[in-house]
Amino acid sequence: xxxxRAKDYDELSRKAANIIAAQVIMKPDSVLGLxxxxxxxxxxxxxxxxxxxxxxxxxxxxxxxxDEYRGLPRENEQSYYYFMRENLFKDINIDMANTNIxxxxxxxxxxxxxxxxxxxxxxGGIDLQLLGLGHNGHIGFNEPDSSFAKMTHCVDLTPSTIxxxxxxxxxxxxxxxxxxxxxxxxxxxxxxxLLIVSGADKAQILHDVLNGPVTPQVPAxxxxxxxxxxxxxxxAALAKx
Length: 241
Ligand code: F6R
Fold this sequence. Notes:
By secondary structure, the protein is an alpha/beta fold. The protein has a single domain, classed as 3-Layer(aba) Sandwich (Rossmann fold), CATH 3.40.50.1360. The protein has seven helices and ten strands. Helix 1 crosses helix 2. The structure holds fructose -6-phosphate.
């Protein structure tokens, strides 16, 4: 595991964008695993800027996102589809037909999760998976549990995740209670993983993820067992490491 220390969020975003840019340059038809949330917004801004400058070409890139709220249609401003379009896709030259996000409106969760696994397998797997870290150690929406989920599945969001995500909704009541998410197994099959973590509020959980026991109670701790993980974190997040 490589750990890069960034001064602050801005430097973290530039370092993370450098790693993704290198992947896109070295393999222009890469399959990128993408994340939503606050952590990658700065990274996406950097990628947009580099694409605008003509230094990055996403025309052959394929993407698969980690997760989507169950029940939210694409047009809903809180859907992850909407987030990805607004924060990245609309400003880079990616072909929207090459972007994949679980379909939150598919009521048959088994069918949708199986379809999504097949999409990922059909693309030949994920070359580089970008991850943020939840305050409870979740990656994707893989919440603390008694075992590691192998495949894309439907999850009940924990109170702590609903609390953390309510900032994007009118109230906590409006946060969907379920989501479709890649499983830990899906994530672990990615050839490379890039975990980005920012802020003092993530210092304790980042310490547990990197130094604690590997346990499904801290889902991201499984990353200790992956052979190609890069962590880019700012000084505040690394304060307890
Ligand atoms: C997002 C996702 C989540 C977030 C995590 C951190 O697609 O799957 O695991 O990465 O909740 O969120 P932020 O970056 O908002 O702190």
